[in-house]
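Our collaborator T.R. sent over the components below with a one-line note: 'Predict the complex.' Nothing else. No constraints on interfaces, no templates requested, no preferences about which chain binds where. So this is a plain run: every listed entity goes in together, and whatever single assembly comes back becomes the starting point for the next discussion.
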Amino acid sequence: MTEAIRAAVFEELAAVGYARMSIEGIARRAGVGKTAVYRRWRSKLHLVLDIVSALAVQGLPAPDTGRLETDLRLLYEVTSRALRHPVASQIIPDLQAEAARNPEIAEAMQKALRDGQESVASSILAAAVGRGEIRADLDRDLALDLISGPLYWRAVVIRSPKLPKGYLGALSRATAEAIKAL
Amino acid sequence: MTEAIRAAVFEELAAVGYARMSIEGIARRAGVGKTAVYRRWRSKLHLVLDIVSALAVQGLPAPDTGRLETDLRLLYEVTSRALRHPVASQIIPDLQAEAARNPEIAEAMQKALRDGQESVASSILAAAVGRGEIRADLDRDLALDLISGPLYWRAVVIRSPKLPKGYLGALSRATAEAIKAL
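Returned assembly:
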């Protein structure tokens, strides 16, 4: 039943957004009673934060190909699919907007980002340091910005409908060079 | 009076967000009548789109230092100030969220981004091609993603309160290397 509720939250978030979403609406969509939802999560905020956290870590493996560029390439393959999912591309901007007014959501979003993509990116960086491909004392946060920013910009901000052929390969090469220059 | 209305729109957007904002609220805040607002803009949507477009181009010079890295550095100085303005950091995510549900806003945001930062970034790229610093046939859209993504990610998505010393210098160096690798 938890899965039915999670699925209903995604649909409800995508349809009406966080501000207008209600526990009633979620329960109706999931075909359960309101109490079934409240037994698992004590508020709409906690429900969404739980879902966000799960979304961030879900399905992101830590690649280990032995080279920074190819590790980045695998990370981008997974991330671009996740970001371009229609549900994610509506929900992420919505929660970002809420985060600007709600410090609890802002903190949960940042934590989800750190626990999800950033922890994978951190493993990739640590492995590259271990191989001597990049400097051990580089600005780790800046490296994470270089890894995460461009694809997010393209998929979520510019909302480009489709990545051209060769895009992820060129992005991986360019980002690897950028990090080596730090 | 147009300036008073513009200022009121910024304050109202930051305070209540696009969805809850009304022409009445804007007029009240600006100390004018509703008709004064409607004489200039025919709807809330058109008013906000106009403001967004103005925000994007405002105060962004096209740097021309003779080097890609230092041109990027100047662009980042201006952009980081603009993005970190409290009003912008609330309004941009808000409009991004609306863009996910409203194609008209999505299109205006994209146009504003293109007309603003991206046109400056395009001039920087064209100058670098002219000097032979970067390839003439590189993927221009990918280069723009590399230029715009990391700082946006850091300032608007991660919402990092302060950039550490040396950040923009290192970002400019790394991004120049990334684009040279395309």
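Summary for T.R.: The domain at 2-40 of chain B is CATH 1.10.10.60 (Arc Repressor Mutant, subunit A).
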